[in-house]
Fold:
Amino acid sequence: MKRVFGLYMLVLAVLMMHVLGCRGVSVKGEDGHYLWLYPQHAVPVKILCSGQTAILSIAKQELLQNWRGKENATVELLVGSDKLIKGDGYKFTATGIQANTEAGILYGVYELLRRQQTNQPIQNEICNPSYEIRILNHWDNPDGSIERGYAGHSIFWRKEQDSMDVTSEDSIRWKEYARANASVGINGTVLNNVNASPKILSRPYLDRVKAIADVLRPYGIKTFLSVKFSSPSMLGGLKTSDPLNPEVIQWWKEKVKEIYSIIPDFGGFLVKANSEGQPGPQDFGRTHADGANMLADALKPFGGIVMWRAFVYSSEDKDRARQAYAEFMPLDGQFRDNVIIQVKNGPIDFQPREPFSPLFGAMKKTSVMPELQITQEYLGHSVQLVFLAAMWEELLKSDTYQEGAGSTVAHCTDGSIFPQKYSAIAGVANIGLDANWCGHQFAQANWYAFGRLAWNNQLTSEKIADEWLRLTFSASVDSLKPEYRNNWQEHFLLPVKNMMLKSREAAVDYMMPLGLHHIFAANHHYGPGPWEAPKGVRPDWTPVYYHKADTFGVGFDRTRTGSNAVSQYHEPLASLFNNQATCPEIYLLWFHHVSWTYRMNSGRSLWDELCLHYDTGLKQVRDFQKTWDEVQPYVDEQRFLEVQSKLREQYHDAQIWKDACILYFQQFSRLPIPPDVEQPVNKLEELMKIKRNMTYHN
Ligand code: GCW
Structure:
C-alpha cells in the first residue's frame, strides 16, 4: 500500500513538473497562475471513503495534497442522506465530511482546506448553497475572441484556421479551470457568447464541447451553450425559425437529442433574443414566452433548462431603464418550470452603480436569476483594481419590499421567498489565456467572489476579501524574514483589504458618482465620453441621452412626472425614489434631473458635491498606490511590479475621467470648481480626442 502511495506521489510530482513546464512559469507561481490555490506544504492524513468515483477521487487527492490539519488525522468522507443538507451542501461532523451528493463532499473538502489555510475554526455545522445553479457565462466566440474579454484569447475556442483537436495544453487548462471553479462552488458554465453563432450547434463544435464537458464533469461542473434563436434557418436550412412552426419545433427536438447523445449530462441553453439585433420570437410575432417554452419543451425530457435573458430594450421607449420590466412582467406565470429568466443586476447595463432591476421580486410566478458581470466592461477592464464584491453585496442586500421588509434581492432569487423550481445565479466570466487568467492579479478576486457569493449570498465583501488575500498572498509569508512574517496581518492584510473594499466606490466616484450612468465613450466602454452624441446613432446608445445635462441641471427624470420608471418599484421605494428629498443620493441623478444649485445633504450645492466626488475618487487611487508601495516587502516581485504599474495607469485614467467630466459639465453649470477640489490638469479639447485601441490581445 505504502509503495503504491509512493508511486502515486512520484507520478503526481512528474505530472506537476510537466504542467509547470508546459506553461513555462516559475515554480513559485509568481505570475498568479495558481490563483487562490497555492500548493501547500501538506502533512499526512488518512482518508476513509468507500467510493471510487471520479469526483470522490479528486476530493481525496485534494485532501492528501493540501492537508494542513493535525498530522496523521483520519478524515471520513461519507455520502449519505441527511434531510438538513440541501442540494450539494455538506456537513462537518466530528469524524469528517458528510453530504448527500459526491459534489457536496468535494465542496466540503475545499471549504475544510480553505479554513485550514485561513485559520478559521471548523465546527460541526451544515453549509448549504444559496443557489442550486452557480454558473459562469463566457462571452467567448467560436474564433477564440472574447466579447468584453480583457485577459487574452478564449481558453475553449481557437482561431478559425487552427485545428479543433484537443491538445494536452487544452486539457490541462480546462482541468485547472474546473478545479478553480469547484473550489468556490461554481457548478455550471456556458461555453460561448450570448451573441451566439449558429455554428456552435454543428458537430465539430459539439465534439469539442463534449471534450470540455468530459474534463469538467469530475469537478461537478455541467456544460451549457448559448444558442442563436434563428439556428433552424441559419444552420438547419429551414425557411423560418418561428417557434410555433412544427418543423422548427422538430428541428430543435432533434438537435437537443443529438446534443444529449454526445453529452448526456448537458445543462441546457442560454438565450439572448430580440436584444441588440439578435433574432428572437418577436421576429415572428411571438412572445418571449413562446420562444423560451419551445426550447424548454425540447430540453425537458433530458432534464435541461433554458436561461432566457431579460436584457431587452427597443429604441422606441423613451427610457431604456423601463423596458425589461415592461416586456417581461406581463409574461409572469407563462413560462415553463424549466425556464429561468436571467436578469442583469441593474435595469440598464452593468454600470458602476445602478439601483437593482425592478424585476427582482416582481416576477413571482417565474424563476428569476441574477446576472452579474465579473469581467470589468464598465469598471476599468483589466487595467483597474476594482473589487466587485462590494457592488454585488449591495445588490443582494437591496430590499425590494415585494413581500414586505426583508425581501432582499438575495431572498427573492434564492428560493427562500418564492417557490421557484430552480434557483440560479450567473456571472459573466473574466477568464482568458493570460498566465494569471484574468488580466489583473486582483481581478482574480472577482472570479473568487462570484463563486463565494453564489454559494452563500449572505457573505460580506469584507470576509471574501480577507479569505482571498490570505489564500492568494500568504504562501509568500513563509519566505519572509521573521520580523516581516509577524506583522503580515497588520502591514499587508489589513491595508490591502481596505484598499480592495474601497476600490468600487472610488471607481464610482471618479467615473460616475451620484447616480450618473453610461457616460462612457462609445464601444470600448473604458474612458469618458459624456459629450458623445453622434448623428444617426440610436439615442440610447449615446451618453447625452443618459445624463441630460443642460443649464438648469443634470440627471435623468424617471419620476412620476418624468419617465415614471420609479413606479416599477414596490412601495415604499417608488415614493422614496420619486421624491428628490428622500431619494438616496447615490441614485439621485439616476432618478432626477437636478438643479446645479440644489442643496445636498452635506449643505453643498450639487455642482460642488459632484466635483468633490470626482476629486475624492482620484485621491483614493493615489492612496491605493501608496498602500501598494508600502507592502512591497510582503509581495513577490512579479506580482508587486505588475500591480504597481497597473495602479499607475489607473491613476492616470482616473485623472482623465475626473477632468473630462468636471470640464464637460462645467460648460452647463457655468460655476467655478470649488477651492477644496484640485484643479483639472488636462484640457477638455485634448481629452475629447483620445481614442482607445480596442483590439484584444492573445
Ligand atoms: O453590456 C452590453 C455589452 C455587449 C453585450 C450585451 C449583453 C454580449 O456591451 O457586449 O453583448 O451587453 O449583455 O448582451
